[in-house]
Amino acid sequence: MTDAMSNALKTVVDANAAVDDDQNRAELHFDGESFPEGQQRLQLLADQAVQALSTNNAPQARSLIGQALHSVQDFYSHTNWVELGNTGPHPSLGVAGISLNRLDANVATCSDCSFDVSSTCNNCNGNLATNQLTSGYYHGENRVKPNARKCSHGGGIDYYPPIASFPLTARYGINKDSRSCDLSPHYFYHERAADLAVGGSKQYIDMIRKRLTDSQLRNLFGVDQAASVYSTSGTTSKVRRALGVESSQNFKRDDGVTDETYMVELGKRTTRITFMNHQSHSLHRRDQSEDSLAGLFNAITSTSRGDYLFVYSDVQSSVSALDAGLIGTLALIRQVRIFAFITTNNTSNSSALDPDLFDAIHASGGQVFLLADSEIDLTPTIISTLLRDDGVDIARLATSGSVAQNVTVPIDSTLHNVTFSVAGTSDATVYKPEGTSISLKDDGLNVVTLGKGLFVTMTDPVPGNWTVNFPATVEASSQISLTVSGSSTMDFDFSFNVLTGRPDHQGYSPIRGFPTANINNLVSATIDTLPSSLNGTIKVYYRDVNNSNAVPFNLTLINEANVTADGSLANLTYYSNGTNSNVLPHEDFYVYMTGPDDGNGHAFQRLHPHMFHASYIGISAPRGSTIHPGSHRNLTILVSNQAPTAVNISLYLSDGAGWLVAQEGQESIGNGQLLVQLNGLATNATREIPMSLSVPTNADLGSTNALSVIASSFSLEGDDDDTEDEDSSADVNFTFISQWVVNGTAMDDVFYYNGTVGGDSSGLDNY
C-alpha cells in the first residue's frame, strides 16, 4: 500500500470514528428503531460521495463514506439482524429507492434480562420478544423509548431512571459492540455481528463503486500519484509548460470556481496534478492582490490528507505571523507538506523572503527554493522524486548561513534510495560514511543543481552515518534548510491525542492543534514494518529545532506485532495511557524514531515531517456536530493557561458562513467573527467560552461550515501593518471545529478563515 493509499484509508477511518462524537442522533447508529431515517441517511451519503468525486473532491468523498460505514457497521451491532438468524448482510441497506420501516410503538420487542447466579453478568440470551427487525434505544438520543417493552441498547452507561411512569425494565439491551458482557448484553454474538459488518461495508462500497468511473475510483482510493499546484498568475503558464500538461479535466467546486486536473508523466509514473485557481484560495484579505501567497491557507483545505502542495510564485509577499501560524498548523492537522518555488531576478538576496512564511512552510515538512526563471524547468524532477512510493523522512534542519554546521544522517539497510535536498544555498557538501564526498561519477547518483539549492538522489546508498556540511557564508541572513528523505517499507506515524467518542464507545483521536506545555500529554506512535534484522530497543523522542536536546517519550508497547512471511514485524503500536509522563517544555520540536539496524553498528532514524509546538495555551473544543436550517446551537470551548505566570489571552473566532452570534462580553468585528478578551487568566486556570450559532432558515441542505479558534497571549490589537506585541512570552494555539452539516450528514473537514473585519484599529483588519 502506497503512502497516498494509506492516507486515503486514514481519512475514512477518522471519519468513521468521529461519528461516535454525536450522542444525540439515533439514526447515525441505527438506534431506537430509526430505520427510515438511517436508511435515508445512507442513501444521501452515497449520493454526496459520488457528487464529491465528480468535482474531484476525493477528501470529502472519503469522509462521507467513512461516516456511512460507521452506521452500516452499527446496524449489525445494534439491531437484531444477527439474532434473526441472518448469515449475510441486509440486501437493501443503503440501496437507493428502498425504504426501511420501523415497528409500531405498541409492538413489544424485548423483555427484561434475568440474573445469572453463575456470572457477574445478567443473562440476556432470551430477552428478545419479536421475530421482526428492531434495535435498542439509547438514553439521551432523539429517538425516545416509547415504553418499557422496547429494547434498550444496554451496557453499563445506558440506563433509564426508574420513575413511576417508566419502570426500570428491558434495561439490559441487545447491543453486540464488544466481547464484554458489562458493555454488551449480547456479547456472545459479537463475532458474528463483526463478520456481517465487514460484509455489509464491502456491499456499501461496492454499491458506490458501480456508480464511479475508473478515474474517480482510483482517485477515491489514492491509487494515482497525486499533487496539488498553487501558482500565482505570473508563473502559471511557465509551470504548465514545465510539467508537460497534455490533457485536462476541469472540476467545478461548490464555490463555483473551477480548478483544473491534469494527468501528466512525471518520472516513470502518471501523476494527477491539480492546479488550484488562486482567486478561490485567498484569505480575502483587504489589501491582497491576486498574486498574494496568503491564500495558502484555503489552498491547504482543498488537498487530501498527506498531499504535497507545490507553490509557484514570482512574488515574495509577506504574511502576518497569524497567517503563517495558521498555515503551519493546518498543514500539520491535514498532514500536508508545502514546497515553494519562488522565482526572483536576484537569487542571491534570499533575505527578501518573508521569514514567517519561510517558517510556516518549513514547519509543514517542506522547503522554500529561490529560483531563476530558467530553473522552473528543473522542478518536475524534484516533484517526481518527492512523490515516491513508500516515502519516509529521515532528517531536517533549518538554519541561517552565518554558522558552519555538520549534520549527521543515519542511513539504514532498508532504504532503497535517499535524497538530500538543500534549499537556500548550493554551497553544501554530502559525505559518505567513509568520509569521501559524493561525486558525479558515483553509480546511481542524480544531482539537480540550482542557483540557491542542491537536490541529490542516490539509489542503494551504503548504510552508515552520512554527513552534510554547511560552511559559514557571508550571507548571515540566508534562510537555509535541509530535508533528507528516502524510500523504505519502514516508517512510523505519530500523534498527540485526546479521548473522544460517546461513553462505552470511546477512543483516542489526534488533537486538532498544538499540544500543551507543562502538562502530561497523551501520545501514540505506530511503526509500519520493522524488518527482522532490526532487533533491539526502539526509541521515540523529540529534539528542538536546532537538532539538539533529545528527550525520549515515555511509551508502552500495547499490541503484539503481526509477524509477516519474511519475519518482519508489522504495526507495532506504542502509546501513553495517562500514567506515562510526557510533559513537554514550551518550545518548537521535531519527533524522531530510532533503533539499531543490522547488527553492524548502524542505526536507523525516522522523522515525523511536521514541526510541533508546545503551547502554554490549551484549547479544548468539540470535534464536530450537525445542525439544521433555522436552528440554534450553543457550544463551549475551554481555554487554559499553563504558563508560569498569569496572561491576557485574546480569542479570535470566525466561521465561513457568518452564523456566529456574539454573547455578552464578546465583540463582533465582522460577519461571523468575534473577538473575546480573557484578562489575567491565572496559571493552571481554565475559562469557559460560550459560543452560539444561528443557522438561517434558507441554509442550503448539504452545505458545510467550520469554526476556527485562535488563542494568543499577545494582543490582537495593532495597526494596519499587522504588528503584534513583541513580548517574548507571546504564545499562540489554534483549533478547527468541523461543522455544520445542515442536512444531518457530517461532511469533510472544510476549514474557513475569511471575511472582512471592519475598523482600522483592529490588528485583524486584513483578515
TrEMBL record:
Pfam families: GBD_Hemicentin, VWA7_N
Domain annotation VWA7 N-terminal: ranges: 4-217
Domain Hemicentin/VWA7 galactose-binding: 404-488
Top-rank lineage group of the source organism: Eukaryota
Protein name as it appears in the record: Uncharacterized protein
Organism the protein comes from: Phaeomoniella chlamydospora
Taxonomic lineage: Eukaryota, Fungi, Dikarya, Ascomycota, Pezizomycotina
